[in-house]
Amino acid sequence: MTAWDAVAAHREGVPVLMPGHVWLAGAGPGDPGLLTLDALSGLQQADVIVHDALVDQRVLALAPKMARLEFAGKRGGKPSANQADITERLIALAREGRRVLRLKGGDPFVFGRGGEEALALAAANVPFRVIPGVTAGLAALAAASIPATLRGINRAVIFAAGHGADEDFDWAPLARAGQPIVLYMVMHNLRRIADALMAAGLASHTPAAIIASTATPLERVLISTLGKLAADAREQKCEPPAIVVIGEIVKVREQLQAAAACVPPPK
Ligand code: SAH
Fold it and tell me: pTM surpassing 0.90?
C-alpha cells in the first residue's frame, strides 16, 4: 500500500467519476504532491485521461495501467489551434460512456481553457465537474519563499497573462495599483512588459523574481529588479515555463531564507 492509498482508505465521500461524465481537473504545476485528493481520485477512476503538455509525467504515472492517456494541448508555447477538436473529443468520449479525466496543468480555470471546455460540455449536456488545482503562480511564490500577501506590504495580488503583449492591453492600471504583479506566459514579452510597467510609474529598482519550472527537478529562482529582469533572464538562460513576480513582496524571501527553519520543499 502506498502512502496515498492509506490516506484514501480513510477518506469518506470520495466523489465517483461516472461513465459518461467528464472531470476537468487541475494537475498542479508539477510535483504530484501538489495534486488534490479529488484529482488523484479522478486519476484512479478514469478510463481516458486527456492531458496537456504542462501535466508532469510523474502525475501521469499515477494513472492505472488500464487507463488510456491522450495528449491534447499546446506544444512549445504555441497556442492550441484545435480547442474545438479537444472539446469535441471530450464530448465524444463521454457519449461513448467513458469516464473522462481532462487534466490540465495548474488550475483548469487560471489562464487555461477550462472555462471554454466547461461551457462546451454544458452546451452538449455532458455532465461534468471542475476540480481546482494549485496554480503555478502561487506554487512558484511558495517555492521561492515569497508570500503572495503579507500584512503591511500588500492586500491584493494581480495575476496577469503576458502572452500577446503586442495586443492592445493597457499595463498602466496594473502598475498604478501598487500591488504585486504575478505574470504567467510572459517570457517572450518580458522586456516589453517591464518597459510598459516602468513607463507607467513602477521604479526600475522594484524587486522582481523569475521562478522557472517550479515543482520540478528543473526549478530555478532568479532574483532581480524590474529594470534588469529581461537582461538577467536572457543572460542566465531562464526558460519557460516560468512565473514572474514584481513587487516589494519579493524582498520577504531574504528574511525567510535567512531563517534556518525554512526548509525548501523536495524537488
Ligand atoms: N492553468 C495553469 C496556467 C496555464 S498558462 C495554472 O494555473 O498554473 C501556462 C503558464 O503557466 C506558463 O507559461 C507559465 O507561466 C505557468 N506555468 C505552468 N507550469 C509552471 C511551472 N511548473 N513553473 C513555472 N510556471 C509554470
Answer: yes
